[in-house]
Amino acid sequence: MLTISCDTTNAAFEGEGLRAESARILRALADRIEAGEDFHTHRNVRDLNGNVVGTCRLKPCNCANPCEHLPTRSA
Ligand SMILES: [Zn+2]
């Protein structure tokens, strides 16, 4: 399951920023996922000002925590 949660109430999302910053965050996440970053546990999502505004998790199953399928290898 791919889970992305992002708060849109801070300054980066005001007005036109709602769409622009949402798109920027999704592109940045796409780059991180493609680059191989480990998203098995929730990783922070930051707005363009560097504030943590949400989380992203990506894993090949739909378990809630704790997940039975976490790889045993270290990241
Ligand atoms: Zn699982």
Can you walk through the features of this model?
The chain is an alpha+beta fold and about 80 residues long. It has one domain. The chain is about 25% helix and about 20% strand. The protein contains one helix and three strands. It has one helix at about 15-35, and strands at about 1-5, 45, 50-60. The protein has a three-stranded antiparallel beta sheet with strand order 1-3-2, covered by helices on one side. Strand 2 (about 45) and strand 3 form a beta hairpin. The relative contact order is 0.24. The model has no long low-confidence stretch (mean pLDDT about 90). Bound molecules: zinc ion.
Tell me the layout of helices and strands.
Elements: E1 2-6, H1 17-34, E2 43-46, E3 52-58
Antiparallel strand pairs: 1-3, 2-3
Residues 61, 63, 67-69 line the site of zinc ion (ZN).
